[in-house]
Amino acid sequence: MTFNAPVPSPSMPSLLMTQLDLGNITINWLRGGDFEVDGGTLFGDVPKVLWQLESPADADNFIRLLNAPLLVRTPEFNIIIDTGLGNKLTEKQRQICRVGRPWSVVEDLHALGLKREDIQYVILTHGDYDHTGGVVMKNGSGGAELTFPRAKHILQKKEWYDISHLNSRSAQSYFPENFSGLQASGMLTVVDGNRQIVEGVAVRLTGGHTRGHQIVEIRGSGGCAVHLGDVLPTHTHANPLWIMAYDNFPLELIEQKEHLLPSYRKPNWWFTFYHDISMKACRLDDLGKVVEQVA
Question: Residue 95: which CATH number?
């Protein structure tokens, strides 16, 4: 398994220049918009004197994160994992989230020779707005439509229930406009637990960050990768006790990390990231230290 750069073109964004090759499956990262979060929320109870050594904050204590959807291409299917911030945020929301570079997923697909209609599956790790903002996009006439109209959108049963039955906490992060028309379109597929989506790609229910959070296992002919979503938002969270204030079920999340991380810390497995500003994927040793990375 290797990571390499596709043949560049004048219009190809730099983020797309990195490709993880797993033999018959490849992974590219798309520009889903970046934003800033308070360092205290990103690391929860971890003292700043520790986390700032790994992730220095700016003068206002903010840390910049990516929202980088994964494009997974198998011999038969094109799959998107999570969808970025989308293009529907209001100016007030953009200011609150300190959004920097915009959502450019459709343009990035074009640079890779794909159209929106070429995506057959969208796997959503969970329902938070920074992962689902691109499910529904604002079109050129100001209306809303599914970004990937021919794709089956995969969500866990528990997660879809919580998206459909908002409480005072989830309403702050599960935006109804991100799911408008999805169920009516017939393109929503709700799964209950672990499920193989296509050959080489499977989802696994973890909970922890949200009640219905799921991860994605990718097994190619030349190597494997696991996308832990917000169970492992950045490589600095490889310590099982380093969790976010955003995690809804912290003790459950710690237990999951203590189980999951050792099971994937193997020579032929990569950990892929959605939020990490410094690397797209890495391998970890038994102590949780990065031994190889896709920068």
Answer: 3.60.15.10
Which domain does 265 fall in, by range?
Answer: 2-294
Assess contact for 103 and 87: CB atoms under 8 A: yes
Residues facing residue 4 across a β-bridge: 19
Q: Which helix (H) or strand (E) holds 159?
A: helix 157-164
| Structural domains counted in the chain | 1
Q: Give dist(CA 166, CA 122) in Å, integer.
A: 22
pTM above 0.90, yes or no: yes
Strand-by-strand arrangement of the 26-29 sheet: 2-4, 19-21, 26-29, 70-73, 78-81, 121-123, 152-156, 188-191
Is 174 within 8 Å of 162 (Cβ atoms)?
A: yes
Note the pLDDT tens digit of each residue in 93-121.
999 999 999 999 999 999 999 999 999 99
200: DSSP letter? T
Q: Is the confidence at residue 10, as pLDDT, over 50?
A: no
